[in-house]
């Protein structure tokens, strides 16, 4: 379902490769934007949808590898698939280490390229889902009262209701009520889930899929 | 005629004969003249000339032979003062020893030069080929990538329901354009090899072949080959590019040497021949290595087809392009009783070579 909106960006200075890729990706249902240089691509304000970048390595102007570093510097997480007619092993190692999804030699096998694009789009979708979940979580967190945030912090540290009550000078029943509110507002069904969500907000945890 | 020459194994027979005759003459003069006359010193000339065999063992043999003959002459000579004869003989022996030593040094230096030249020739061949291959691969891979993408896109557009004939047509048009472009790249590569002889000189093929053989001599010796040549004296001179045709001969000779280098047993004979035949000349390189099957012979001139471990399979393909650009033909056949013969013919009649410019 997302696939219909997913966009493949293509940057290749060779017009026939560019147009061929454009047609190929459209024929399998992606939206495609193709550019002759990384500069043109960099100027674009990208729409907010799952996407990936199919990037030629050797082009006039900055190379694809340089551009990958540039995007990383900008914290741009778009997944990259490299295509090159001139690949060598150090170049491929560098690209993959820097997080590229795939490094394909021209002429590539169609299935390899489509598989790589599928993987890249999925990777972007997952990242987007995680980010959306985190944003929602943060929105929920904002709705907590100051006291509830305090209780959440103690719960996340693994302290018992009795200890929290003593720490905050509250009765144990009051702490239980606050904790119930926190779990309801944060949408956590169990204590374990609540602790995980707290870790996510504080940036300590990894999303569990 | 050919058979007789094939049986002859000695390199440079005339040089051998001349040196032996010279030694005999010196020996005779030394024995017949008085003891005081140190004719034996002239042996140094024999030793210096023997350097031309490019073989240390030959130089040492001539040095030892000269020393032995000097002593023999001293013992045989009747006339003259014994004492000065002894001194002269000793001086001659020292001169012979010193000259042998120097000759060996010269020989070693020359061998190093030949080795370096051969390595250089090989290296330039390999690097040129490597660079050429990388750039051709890149130039061809671009349109091929386009063909792969557009071709598959066309299939998908047609397979879609409803099929999009417009998109498919545009994709197929790109396939055709890319295929044309790939073809142009191949054409350019062909021209690179074929058309580049701006020089179409009258070539002395015998000199050209001998130059290549000089370059490869140490390589041939390394593979312990016996080299024989059968180069016609009155060979007609074809028009062509000297460097390119040298590359062809070099390729054939190196291939033959490598084909025999791995032999466990049997003769390792390399026969390089050149002969006129009506309106053309034929250059052939025969080895006694492994014979190829008829099927292998058919493929042997194709690019990237190699029978050697680590071979690029470009040597014979490029050789064929060069020969054909000169209006000639290259061929391979089984040699009897064993091995292969590779060779090429070139036209020599003026009319035939003019046609190449068209």
What is the residue-averaged pLDDT of chain A? 88
- Poorly predicted ranges of chain A: none
The figure for the number of domains of chain B is 3
Q: Give me the secondary-structure category of chain B.
A: alpha+beta
Kindly report the greatest chain-chain contact and the residue count on each side: A-B, 21 and 26 residues
CATH architecture annotation of the largest domain in chain A: 3-Layer(aba) Sandwich
Taking Cα atoms only, what radius of gyration of chain A do you get, to the nearest Å?
23 Å
Shape of chain A: elongated
What is the total domain count of chain A?
2
Can you tell me the CATH class of the largest domain in chain A?
A: Alpha Beta
CATH class of the largest domain in chain B: Alpha Beta
Q: Termini of chain A, distance in Å?
A: 19 Å
Oligomerization status of the protein chains:
heterodimer
CATH topology of the largest domain in chain B: Heat Shock Protein 90
Overview of the molecule:
- The complex is a heterodimer of chains A (209) and B (358).
- Chain A has 209 residues and is α/β, with parallel strands linked by helices.
- Chain A folds into two domains: 2-131, 3-Layer(aba) Sandwich (Rossmann fold), CATH 3.40.50.2300; 143-201, Arc Repressor Mutant, subunit A, CATH 1.10.10.
- Helices cover 56% and strands 12% of the residues of chain A.
- A five-stranded parallel β-sheet of chain A has the order 2-1-3-4-5, sandwiched between helices.
- In chain A, helix 1 links the parallel strand 1 and strand 2.
- In chain A, helix 6 (146-156) packs across helix 8 (172-186), helix 6 packs across helix 9 (191-201) and helix 7 packs across helix 8.
- Chain B is an alpha+beta fold and 358 residues long.
- Chain B folds into three domains: 2-114, no CATH class; 121-194, Orthogonal Bundle (Helix Hairpins); 201-357, 2-Layer Sandwich (Heat Shock Protein 90), CATH 3.30.565.
- Chain B is 62% helix and 11% strand.
- Chain B is built from eleven helices and seven strands.
- Chain B has helices at 2-7, 13-32, 43-50, 56-76, 82-159, 165-194, 205-222, 242-261, 294-299, 315-325, 350-354; strands at residues 201-202, 226-231, 239-240, 269-277, 280-286, 329-334, 340-347.
- A five-stranded mixed β-sheet of chain B has the order 2-4-5-7-6. Chain B has a two-stranded antiparallel ribbon with strand order 1-3.
- In chain B, a hairpin with a 5-residue loop joins strand 6 and strand 7 (340-347).
- The radius of gyration of chain B is 30 Å and the shape is elongated.
- The interface between A and B is medium-sized, with 21 and 26 residues.
């Amino acid at each position: 379902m997302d696939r219909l909106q997913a966009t493949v960006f293509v940057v290749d200075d060779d017009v026939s490769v560019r147009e061929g890729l454009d047609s190929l990706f459209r024929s399998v249902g992606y939206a495609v934007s193709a550019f002759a240089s990384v500069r043109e691509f960099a100027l674009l304000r990208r729409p907010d949808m799952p996407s990936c970048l199919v990037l030629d390595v050797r082009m006039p102007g900055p190379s694809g590898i340089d551009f990958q570093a540039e995007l990383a510097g900008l914290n741009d997480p778009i997944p990259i698939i490299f295509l090159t007619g001139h690949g060598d092993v150090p170049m491929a190692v560098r690209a993959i280490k820097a997080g590229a999804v795939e490094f394909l030699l021209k002429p590539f096998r169609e299935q390899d390229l489509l598989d790589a694009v599928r993987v890249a789009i999925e990777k972007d979708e997952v990242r987007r889902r995680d980010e959306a979940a985190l944003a929602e979580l943060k929105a929920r967190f904002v709705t907590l009262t100051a006291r509830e945030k305090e209780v959440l912090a103690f719960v996340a540290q693994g302290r018992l209701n009795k200890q929290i009550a003593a720490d905050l000078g509250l009765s144990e029943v009051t702490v239980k009520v606050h904790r119930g509110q926190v779990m309801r507002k944060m949408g956590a069904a169990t204590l374990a889930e609540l602790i995980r969500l707290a870790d996510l907000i504080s940036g300590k945890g990894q999303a569990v899929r | 005629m050919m058979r007789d020459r094939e049986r002859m194994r000695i390199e440079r027979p005339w040089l051998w004969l001349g040196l032996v005759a010279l030694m005999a003459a010196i020996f005779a003069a030394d024995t017949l003249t008085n003891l005081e006359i140190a004719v034996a010193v002239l042996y140094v000339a024999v030793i210096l000339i023997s350097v031309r065999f490019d073989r240390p063992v030959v130089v040492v043999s001539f040095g030892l032979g000269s020393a032995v003959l000097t002593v023999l002459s001293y013992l045989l000579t009747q006339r003259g003062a014994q004492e000065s004869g002894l001194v002269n003989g000793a001086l001659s022996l020292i001169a012979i020893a010193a000259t042998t030593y120097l000759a060996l040094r010269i020989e070693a230096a020359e061998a190093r030069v030949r080795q370096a030249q051969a390595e250089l020739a090989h290296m330039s061949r390999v690097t040129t080929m490597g660079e050429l291959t990388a750039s051709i691969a890149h130039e061809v891979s671009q349109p091929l990538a386009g063909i792969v993408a557009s071709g598959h896109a066309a299939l998908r557009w047609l397979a879609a329901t409803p099929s999009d004939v417009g998109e498919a047509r545009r994709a197929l048009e790109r396939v055709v354009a890319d295929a044309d472009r790939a073809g142009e790249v191949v054409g350019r590569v062909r021209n690179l090899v074929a058309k580049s002889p701006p020089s179409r000189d009258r070539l002395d093929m015998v000199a050209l072949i001998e130059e290549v053989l000089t370059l490869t001599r140490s390589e041939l010796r390394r593979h312990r080959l016996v080299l024989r040549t059968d180069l016609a004296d009155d060979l007609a001179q074809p028009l062509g590019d000297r460097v390119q045709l040298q590359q062809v001969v070099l390729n054939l000779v190196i291939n033959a040497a490598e084909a025999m280098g791995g032999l466990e047993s049997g003769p390792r004979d390399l026969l390089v021949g050149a002969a006129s035949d009506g309106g053309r000349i034929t250059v052939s390189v025969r080895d006694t290595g492994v014979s190829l099957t008829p099927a292998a012979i058919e493929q042997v001139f194709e690019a990237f087809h190699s029978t050697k471990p680590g071979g690029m399979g470009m040597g014979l393909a490029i050789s064929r392009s060069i020969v054909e650009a000169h209006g000639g033909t290259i061929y391979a056949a089984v040699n009897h009783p064993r091995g292969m013969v590779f060779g090429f013919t070139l036209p020599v009649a003026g009319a035939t070579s003019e046609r190449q410019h068209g």
